[in-house]
Every structure is written in C-alpha cells, then in structure tokens.
Automatic annotation (TrEMBL), chains A, B, C, D:
It comes from the Archaea. InterPro entries: ASRT (IPR009794), TM1070-like_sf (IPR036698). Residues 1-26 are annotated as: Disordered. Gene3D superfamilies: TM1070-like. SUPFAM superfamilies: Hypothetical protein TM1070 (SSF89232). Pfam families: ASRT. It comes from Natronolimnohabitans innermongolicus JCM 12255. This is Sensory rhodopsin transducer.
Length: 122, 122, 122, 122
C-alpha cells in the first residue's frame, strides 16, 4: 500500500465563530490520517506560525487499519492553537500514512469547504 | 497515458441531510475514476473507519475509455456506509486509473464543494 | 522550470443553471494551464464520458510565458460538452505545462468553489 | 524534511468585491508558504497573464521555521495585480519550502473557498 512518513500542510487557519449546530457545523480545520497498515501509527504534529517559533509535537495515535480526522481547534497539549491566526503544520509518523487537509468554515450563514491531499515528504 | 493501480483518500464523510432538488443537489461524497486505457478496469474499494475494522471490498467496473463517478452514499454491497461518520478509502484497480475525490455538501441552504486528486500509490 | 506533457482530471461536471451576473458568476468548469516556457504550447484535450466513447481532441494554444483558463462550458469544436453530465478529461501538450482544475457552481444563490492541481502523467 | 525550490499555481483570480468584515472576510487569493528549515528563505514570485508578458519577481522572505500566507491582492512591488483578471504564478525559493494555494471568494453573501497544494518543480 501507499503512504509516507512525513507530510506538510502550509495552510492553516481556525475561523473565529460558527453558524449552525455543533459539533458537525462548527468551523474546523482538520488533518485526516489514514493508516492502512497492520501496525499502529504514532504521529507527531508540529505547528508553525508567522511570528514565533513552532509548538509541538502534538502526539496522536492512528491504530492499524483505522482513519482518524483530528481537528486542530481541539488540540490541547502542549497548548491550544489560537483562532484567527495563520499557521502551518508538519505531520510525522513512524509507519506510512496518508494525509489530507480539510476546512469547514461556517462563519457566515452557509458553510464553505476546502480540501487537498497534503504534500508528501521524501 | 498516466494512471496508477492504487489510490488513497483519507477524508470521507457523508453529510446528513440535503437542501434542494435530488439527485443533483443531494449531499454526496464521490470518488471519480478515469480509465483512459483500452482495457476495462475492475476496481476494489475498501472503506476504513475510526473505531472498527475496514469493510469491503466494494467492487466496481470502469469500462475502457470511460469515467465513472461513484457516490459513497449509494454504496450497498457488502453494506451501506453510515452518514455522519468519519471514514477513509483505498481504491485498487487492475489497470491504471486516475482518481479524484469530491464532496457536495448541501446541508445548509447553499451548497459547498471540495475536491482533490487522491494520493497515488507506488 | 516544472511542467509535464500529460495531465488528467477525473472529475468534470458543468452545472445546469447559474445565479448572478455573467460571465464572472456563471457556473463554469475550468482547466487552467500555465506555459512558463519560451515556446508556444499546442494542447489537445480529450473528454471522456460515462456511457459513450471519448470526444476530441479539442485543440488549444497557450503562448509562451502565458496562462490560459479554458472553460469546458465554452468548448465548441468538435462539439459542445453537455451540461448536467459526468465527464473527465486528459490534457496533452507538446511543451511542458502545469494544469489545475477549478469549478464555480452558482446554481444556488451563493457560489461554491473547488480546485485541485490535476494528476500529472509520467 | 520535505520541500521544493520551485512551485507553480496555474489558477489565479482576485475576485472584484467582497461581503463581510475586512480583512478576514475580504476576497483574497493566497499563496501559503512553509519554511520548516533552519535557514531563512528568499522567495521570488513571478506572475503570468493571458495576453501580456509576466511581471515580477515579487520578493518575499519566509524566516526559518515560520509560515507566511501572502495575499496576491496585497502585492505592490513592482506593481499591483489587477482584480477580475486571470493569472498564474511561479514561486522560486533558495531553500526548500512547501506551497499551498487558497482563495476566499466573498463576492456573494456567503463565502466560498478553494485550496490545493501547488505543483512542485523538479
């Protein structure tokens, strides 16, 4: 199967505010990880900012043959990611995974969506 | 021509509910396959979840020199994919194909769209 | 510079109907080509369907050091592409170009957008 | 870490007009750059048009271990990029970076979004 150990997402932004019922219509910025291997993946996410040093790693687990869609707006340890501020992220995994970036923006009355496969490292 | 035997889509989510006339404005999650070769493609799609084992394969055919846009919300055999739940998918084809992922979300009054080329396997 | 001779876009659909002033808010499906070389590019686009053979090539030119954003809904020769029907496309160029796919869907009152870099051939 | 010296974005268009509070809901076309290396990146952006020669380079800096999300609609030197006109861009950096393209279109009452990882050069 396909997969990479490193992925990068240059775009990141948690919209301030939401419209509609939570949690499904809450504005969110998500990193979707697929671990199609038969080994659990330990994942470390580092978050980069415009004017200060990176924070992290945020440690996550994606069990074997599972997908996990992590919302940056729910990250807490080592610290929450501020809303309304540009960021970027690098995802590193000890087993090969596939990574996709999705945002749901419900600041205005109707929601908007974006998504892209992240950039794979070598 | 270009094409790969394996593709992965880490993002998957069938929105619950729709607004507007069906089927064109029904919320849907689609895997678009292009078979530009001169041989029919037999495709197997495996669907991964957050907290239980994968299901599938869903078997599909894409004839030679045709495109097929399959909606995950219409998958039935071996079982329907639940709405409102995170999933991911792996697409395997016996001839090289190209794969793109698209969602139309019409839960709110105006529709939102996302799309990305899937991640190709080696 | 970067660029490829062949690109594929499995997703294609010209929405039926639009809301808002034309041409900027007319629903459209676009293939954006960048020719950053110093030679004019002759481009041939072949369109694939669900249940009938491909049509084309649609011949286009992208001059040296220029970009052209072609709307599938304005293709006429050899024949227009029907609205409301799934299609896919393959783009072949005699000099290396870069290709991105974008849709603006204004069927409902507010517009929706999708975009992805196309899949490059070998 | 991953990254490339050259990136291309064939799609470019600065919507004319916006709805909602500025700057966060102003229509914008953005190039998001991540420099995960420990060296500052000097970046040159060249912008291509439909019917006239390219302009640039627009010179930007992305410090070591930082991300910068540059809005094409705020480019000023050597000259502003016109709104309502198709363009494309090539991004060249002296250290490896990762590049993503995002548009927020708020011409109509509710905003629309698109995003994709740019096309990496060799």
């Amino acid at each position: 199967m396909t997969g990479k150990h490193t992925w990068a997402i240059p775009e990141g932004y948690i919209p301030e505010g939401s419209t509609g019922p939570e949690p499904e219509m809450e504005s969110h910025e998500t990193v979707c990880l697929l671990n199609a291997t038969d080994e659990d993946a330990t994942v470390e996410i580092t978050v980069y900012f415009t004017d200060r040093g990176p924070i992290g790693p945020y440690e996550k687990t994606v069990p074997a043959e599972r997908t996990r869609h992590f919302r940056f707006n729910e990250f807490e340890d080592p610290e929450p990611i501020p809303t309304g501020e540009d960021f970027a992220s690098v995802i590193e995994s000890d087993v090969p995974v596939v990574c996709q970036h999705t945002r749901l923006d419900s600041r205005q009355a109707e929601n908007a969506l974006l998504s892209t496969i992240a950039h794979p490292g070598e």
